[in-house]
Write a structure and sequence with these properties.
Layout lengths: L1 H20 L3 H12 L3 H24 L1 H5 L8 H17 L8 H4 L9 H30 L8 H24 L1 H12 L1 H4 L1 H14 L9 H28 L6 H14 L11 H14 L11 H29 L5 H11 L27 H7 L9
């Protein structure tokens, strides 16, 4: 039932966003002209630069996870870390309604040492920190542009995004201080214990286990390193938007590139359409429209809109191709297999009464889930739990 609901939600997002960005006959003609106007001699240096920045972004995004796992006694070998992360990133694109977020933690669970819920907690911290950073940047950029001529959706969106992630951060802080009391209070506020006490008890147990994954907040060294990797990750991501925009003749400022990246980050934190199709393009156009002077929701579009849409389509295709290729390479390594991925997906599958080895996807933030498939020789070397334990 929950899987069906997630599919309906994902397909609904797909239909809405495709309808919002699909050009009419005149728009399709202008889009074709914009594509024909591209010259490979002028285009390829920017494309090469973007791909290089995408590689750095991918590395930083994967590498920083070890600093969240270390405080709960997990340290992934470098090759395994990159392989699992690459497969997880690919799953985010492939699975509906953010269910792909559960795959990465599901692939590193270690029986008796690291539960799926604890691994999920590290990803919750990762997502909330990411959300706060991009929301803060979007808020600052939009606040500087506010005025009578600014779009009506601009500031409410900035306030809402910042508020949601700030509330999530408050929950983390209080749950680290008083975990049982905080979770109990939130459950009571949800009224779920009155409606479905059995499900509420299962959720409360899982959330309390997940809070263990918040341990990095008490580890100054690892948290600092994680933040440095995160800043580099988002910095190269925003720089990539600026570089690729140049390839399409878009006079986008650096601030505009980062604001567009941030708004896209906020937009795709919602339940995602399959492959982010339509959703990626729509939120990219919303950001570009503010800085390039067009309204993507309007009926009449200036000529630059075709170039902006071409850019949004190209960036999406490049990212899908990149993450699919990296995921395929991850699956081709000894660290992850199709069997591992299928087993992780089975563990992620929502259940009506979650047990100790299952995470109910509907109870988690917008995040992932996990299963330990560590090769036997790695376990023999890893042995006891500790910061050097290999999975």
């Amino acid at each position: 039932m929950r899987l069906a609901f997630n599919l309906i939600l994902s397909l609904g997002m797909l239909a809405l966003c495709v309808w919002l960005v699909w050009p009419d006959a005149d728009g399709q003609h202008k889009l074709a002209n914009a594509i024909d106007a591209l010259h490979i001699a002028d285009f390829w240096p920017y494309l090469a630069g973007y791909i290089a920045l995408l590689a750095v972004t991918h590395f930083c995004r994967a590498w920083r996870w070890n600093n969240l796992l270390a405080p709960i006694g997990v340290r992934l070998p470098h090759g395994r870390l990159l392989a699992i992360s690459s497969v997880g990133f690919m799953a985010i694109l492939a699975l509906p309604a953010r269910l792909g977020e559960f795959v990465r933690p599901a692939l590193i669970r270690k029986q008796g040492e690291v539960s799926a819920s604890s691994a999920l907690g590290t990803v919750a911290v990762e997502r909330i920190v990411d959300g706060l950073l991009v929301s803060a940047f979007v808020f600052g950029a939009f606040f500087a542009l506010r005025g009578p001529d600014s779009p009506g959706w601009m500031m409410p969106t900035a306030y809402a995004a910042l508020g949601v992630f700030a509330a999530a951060l408050v929950f983390i802080v209080f749950s680290m201080w008083r975990p049982k009391q905080t979770v109990s209070f939130c459950m009571k506020m949800s009224l779920l214990p009155r409606i479905a006490p059995r499900i509420a008890a299962a959720i409360e147990h899982k959330v309390l286990d997940m809070i263990r994954g918040f341990s990095v907040l008490k580890d100054g060294k690892n948290m600092t390193i994680f933040m440095l990797w995160t800043i580099l990750y988002w910095g190269t991501n925003g720089l990539g938007v600026w570089v690729l925009a140049k390839a399409f003749g878009l006079e986008l400022t650096m601030v505009g590139a980062f604001a567009t990246m941030g708004l896209l980050g906020v937009g795709i934190s919602l339940p995602n359409s399959p492959g982010l199709v339509g959703q990626f393009q729509y939120f990219t156009l919303l950001g570009l429209g503010i800085y390039l002077g067009f309204d993507p929701n309007g009926k009449l579009h200036p000529p630059i809109y075709a170039s902006a849409l071409t850019f949004a389509i190209a960036q999406h295709l490049l990212q899908v191709a990149w993450y699919t290729a990296m995921g395929a390479i991850g699956l081709a390594t000894k660290h992850v297999s199709f069997h591992d991925l299928a087993l992780a997906r089975k563990k992620v599958a929502p259940t009506d009464a979650p047990g100790d080895d299952a995470v109910d996807a509907s109870t988690a933030p917008v995040l992932p889930r996990a299963v330990d498939v560590t090769p036997a020789d790695d376990r023999d070397r890893g042995g006891a739990r500790g910061k050097d334990a290999g999975l």
